[in-house]
């Protein structure tokens, strides 16, 4: 039994309602992740007995975030979530009539659900087919996140909602730093051991680029404590969260590097009781497919009251210095 403690920390919030321009075509993007290896890792995690504490927390948050939305969704898509945790959390609300499940690996059908094995980078849905798209801890491993968001927005009906959670920010920064220090010390160089993650503000911008209205991005930071770095790595294996970078080293990890990494981790990132800390940043995205009923930003120059009047201040003409 793994001995873990999760400590929530206050998250930062970024939101914007600026007008967006839809890109005419999907942009070129680098191929960072081996998607076939991801599927193999998820199958192995399921066989080992998945570690689901992060996904279970995310599922609870999905229910909380959808609760204020006073809408009925006839057809909802669960995109790539590794388990059925999000669907189990949302169905009791009574707001969703039917789920379509697009998953990376096949799973048993559940009564009332439609299942399709599909990759998040190539969605098999026509324009305006969906009322709601949810995705739990899956979109951080797509190679073309802007393209995937564009496909989601097109698949949504006008005024349809996207609500997604993905790993991002400073997730596993302690493990990344410890591996880099150990490899530099023993091998004289550094190789990619932990996947890069999207920054909060970058993701908020991607929602705009994809054409979503009322886009919002925020982050929920968790600190999880473990007995050792090796215990953390066992948990990552049971999450299917191993290294899937295309540019990963193809030789087995040296035992000496692994043990030295664990020592450095304990030296730099442990609490007084000897347990080590691991950061997980859950980045949340929400946005609506545009619809004429949604609030619109005011046009420049349409204000009916001057800011200076509202603040009770004197307006200084351009070019005039204060005090003159």
Notes on the structure:
With 324 residues, the chain is α/β, with parallel strands linked by helices. The protein has a domain at 5-172 and 197-241 and 279-290: Vaccinia Virus protein VP39 (Rossmann fold, 3-Layer(aba) Sandwich). Helix content is 30%, strand content 23%. The protein has helices at residues 35-48, 53-66, 85-90, 145-155, 173-186, 200-209, 229-238, 255-268, 307-311; strands spanning 5-9, 13-15, 73-79, 96-103, 113-117, 130-136, 156-168, 213-226, 276-288. Strands 1, 2, 3, 4, 5, 6, 7, 8 and 9 form a nine-stranded mixed beta sheet that branches. Helix 4 links the parallel strand 6 (130-136) and strand 7 (156-168). Helix 5 (173-186) packs across helix 8 (255-268). The longest helix is centred in the first third of the chain and has 14 residues, at 35-48. The chain starts with a strand and ends in a 13-residue tail after the last helix. The model is unreliable at 1-27 (pLDDT under 50).
List keywords for this structure.
324 residues; alpha/beta; Rossmann fold; nine-stranded mixed sheet; globular
In a few lines, what is going on in this structure?
By secondary structure, the chain is of the alpha/beta class. It is 30% helix and 23% strand. The protein has a domain at 5-172 and 197-241 and 279-290: Rossmann fold, CATH 3.40.50.
Helices and strands in order, then pairings?
Blueprint lengths: L4 E5 L3 E3 L19 H14 L4 H14 L6 E7 L5 H6 L5 E8 L9 E5 L12 E7 L8 H11 E13 L4 H14 L13 H10 L3 E14 L2 H10 L16 H14 L7 E13 L18 H5 L13
Parallel strand pairs: 3-4, 3-6, 4-5, 6-7
Antiparallel strand pairs: 1-8, 2-8, 7-9, 8-9
Helix pairs in contact: 5-8
């Amino acid at each position: 039994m793994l001995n873990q403690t999760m400590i929530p920390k206050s998250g930062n919030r970024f939101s914007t309602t600026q007008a967006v321009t839809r890109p005419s075509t999907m942009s070129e993007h680098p191929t960072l992740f081996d998607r076939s290896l991801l599927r193999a890792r998820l199958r192995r995690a399921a066989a080992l007995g998945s570690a689901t504490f992060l996904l279970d927390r995310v599922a609870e948050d999905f229910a909380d975030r959808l609760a204020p939305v006073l809408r009925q969704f006839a057809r909802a898509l669960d995109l790539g979530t590794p388990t059925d945790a999000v669907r189990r959390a949302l169905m009791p609300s009574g707001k969703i009539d039917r789920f379509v499940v697009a998953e990376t690996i096949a799973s048993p059908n559940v009564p009332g659900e439609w299942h399709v094995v599909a990759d998040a980078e190539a969605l098999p849905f026509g324009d305006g087919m969906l009322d709601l798209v949810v995705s739990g801890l899956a979109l951080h491993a797509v190679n073309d996140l802007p393209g995937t968001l564009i496909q989601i927005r097109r698949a949504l009906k006008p005024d349809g909602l996207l609500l997604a959670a993905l790993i991002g920010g400073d997730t596993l920064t302690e493990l990344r730093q410890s591996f880099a220090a150990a490899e530099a010390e023993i091998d004289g160089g550094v190789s990619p051991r932990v996947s890069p993650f999207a920054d909060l503000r970058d993701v908020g911008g991607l929602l705009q680029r994809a054409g979503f209205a009322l886009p919002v991005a925020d982050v929920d930071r968790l600190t999880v404590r473990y007995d050792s770095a090796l215990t953390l790595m066992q948990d990552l294996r049971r999450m299917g969260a191993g290294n899937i970078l295309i540019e990963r080293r193809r030789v087995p990890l040296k035992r000496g590097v692994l043990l030295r990494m664990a020592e450095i981790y304990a030296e730099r990132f442990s609490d007084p009781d000897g347990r080590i800390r691991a950061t997980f940043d859950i980045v949340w995205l929400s946005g609506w497919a545009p619809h004429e009923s949604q609030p619109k930003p005011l046009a420049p120059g349409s204000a009916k009251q001057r800011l200076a009047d509202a603040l009770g201040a004197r307006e200084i003409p351009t070019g005039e210095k204060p005090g003159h």
